[in-house]
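User: My instructor asked us to take a sequence, write out its structure as tokens, and then describe one feature of it. I'm not sure where to start. Here is the sequence I was given:
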Amino acid sequence: MKTAFAEKFVKEGKLTCDYQGCHVLTLAFEKAADEKVKKQLLTRLVELIHNNNDYLDTGFLSVLFYYS
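Assistant: Let's start with the prediction itself. The structure tokens for your sequence are:
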């Protein structure tokens, strides 16, 4: 399943949908293909939060997973 997810939604270590919530859910459900990609996605999530004036902006569906 990780391989299929990666083939469809991860390109060059980045998600094709570049929203905080997408990154949170991908990381929470452990859909990163490997540790390298996981690290890249986590780094991008931190960048997205920082670029949003250090505010989490994931929507209600992702917040629960972020704080679990």
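For the description part of your assignment, you could build on this observation: Residues 35-51 form the longest helix (17 residues). Try explaining in your own words what that tells you about the chain.
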